[in-house]
Design goal:
The protein has 279 residues and is an alpha/beta fold. It is built from twelve helices and six strands. It folds into two domains: 49 residues, no CATH class; 202 residues, Rossmann fold, CATH 3.40.50. α7 packs across α10.
């Protein structure tokens, strides 16, 4: 499996590089000093981990040769499609054909509780597979690179960010979060908070009813399914403030709008939202 020079080609992890001499000293004479350098044993551990336990991309199966590649290879990340240029000013729905942004008919007929919502990408292709790895395969470390990628597309949206006081992740029911081990929206909110230099609070909202997953429902059934399932637990944190909800995927907007309704009724000044992708 390994060629005779394979280990010399592992960037940053060749055994020679770990034992390189201190300037002005002979490696043959003073090699023992290399073992005392900070991080030596950690580097050695990484080298043997790379040598004997090779990793593969969870999307395409390609061998992850570069040390900085984790879970998903660089080529798969590069296949993530950018968002279309046109979208609804309010709900953020992407337009497949229009290249300009304007208010959609749904928002004109029945304005949502959300003032503004923005998504980073269409929920399809490689991006969809990466989000599913984050949600269901325990790859929580994917939250940060996903936010890094999505943030490029809505970081300069002044209407979205101006005046925001607090980021709030959409909560999972405690039973579902225990089964999964974490709430992916919470991880996304934490990563996004660092990007925009804003506080975030995971205990503002609580999901008090463990309703069925939205994926199997459509339209009106989705809205009915999430009605009255959320409750504000830290009202003092939101009164008179502009809140930005954070979640992974936007489909009909039923979950985000129900969260917004509950927050507004509890005294929030305004509620906006960001998601990684929209289906």
């Amino acid at each position: 499996m390994w060629g005779e020079n394979k280990q010399e080609k592992i960037r940053g992890y060749s055994l020679d590089s770990l034992l390189c001499p201190v300037s002005g000293e002979s490696r043959g004479k003073d090699r023992a000093r290399a073992f005392l350098r900070p991080g030596f044993f950690r580097s050695l551990e990484k080298f043997f981990e790379f040598l004997f336990f090779p990793s593969f991309c969870q999307i395409c199966g390609k061998f992850l040769e570069a040390p900085e590649e984790k879970i998903v290879c660089r080529k798969c990340w590069e296949q993530v499609l950018p968002p279309p240029p046109g979208h609804c000013f309010q709900c953020g729905r992407f337009y497949e054909l229009a290249e300009i942004s304007f208010l959609c008919l749904d928002c004109l007929r029945q304005p949502p509780w959300l003032t503004i919502h923005r998504s980073g990408f269409p929920y399809q292709g490689v991006l969809k597979e990466i989000i599913l790895l984050l949600k269901f395969k325990e790859y929580s470390c994917l939250a940060r690179p996903l936010i890094d990628l999505a943030f490029r597309y809505f970081r300069d949206d002044h209407a979205l960010w101006e005046g925001v006081d607090l980021l709030v992740p959409v909560p999972l029911h405690s039973r579902r979060e225990k089964e999964r081990g974490y709430n992916q929206a919470r991880l996304l909110a934490q990563a996004l908070a660092e990007k925009v230099n804003l506080p975030w609070e995971a205990k503002v909202l609580k999901r008090i009813i463990n309703s069925p997953p939205q994926t199997s429902l459509k339209g009106k059934d989705r809205r009915k399914n999430v009605r009255n399932v959320f409750q504000v637990k830290k009202g003092q944190a939101i009164v008179g403030r502009i809140i930005c909800l954070v979640d992974d995927v936007y489909t009909t907007g039923a979950t985000l709008n129900e969260c917004a309704r509950v927050l507004l009724n509890a005294g929030a000044k305004e509620v906006r939202a960001v998601t990684l992708a929209q289906a």
